[in-house]
Amino acid sequence: MKKYLFMLILGFTTIAASAQKHKLTIYSRANSSNCTVDYTDYDKLYPDSIKSIVMIDYKKKYQLKNINTLLLRMNLDGWKLVSTIADANGAFGNVYTVTQYLMSKEILLDDAAMMLYIQNLKSLK
Predict the structure, then answer these.
(1) Residue 111: which of 42, 47, 41, 48 has the closest Cα?
(2) For the chain, what are the domain ranges?
(3) Residue 92 DSSP class
């Protein structure tokens, strides 16, 4: 009986602890032409603890030269592919296509980080 009561209390404690976190979906854009990732305005929005985890320079850190390897590496870090955007550009009759990949990731923010995010979002123009 004590075993079941302990499991029940542990379950409620886990639910209460996870309820204190705010889930936020963030987005980035991976570029196929140079294997870079664009984190728009994240340096202005999030605290340093989040920036160091999220804003990784994959090209520099892993010496990536192939977009497929970049997408697989980002997937290992929790990023999910949301959409692809093909942009055809022509210069002097030459047409080339640059594909951008929209990626998303869910992060958890505590109350203080969420309040800082909201304040930074309000001040961002």
Answers:
(1) 47
(2) 22-123
(3) T
